[in-house]
Design a protein that fits this description.
four-stranded antiparallel sheet, 4 helices
Length: about 140
Amino acid sequence: MRNVIASALAAGVLLVIAVKLLIPSYESVAKTRVTNVLTGMREGTGTGAKVETAMAMWAEGKLRITDRDRLSAASDGFDKWRRAKDLYRPTGEFTVDSVEMVKDAPEETAIVSFTLEGKPYKVKVPKSSFIRWIE
């Protein structure tokens, strides 16, 4: 009986380890999301694939938005978001500097700090909503 219990516990521990290895942390997800947005912003404005991916990642954390109404709202919101920091243009080099989780947020949310063209920025990256500037 002890061997069965020990085997079950070992299997459970292995399962937890496997899940942690296979499912990225939200810090990693948020960093990748911001990196994809900033990479697409290098292309500037328009409807190119990289800009559309940046917009979808900004709005929903997805590679593409296929629903016409959600796509239109995401496009308008992404343009306003970039204009708020005078970034509605092709942008230059960037680095993602840090990611920290927001404690007690209603959903997984990270604060991502990055440097774009030598200037520091901070954004709030909620799991299921658009990215927001932190003033």
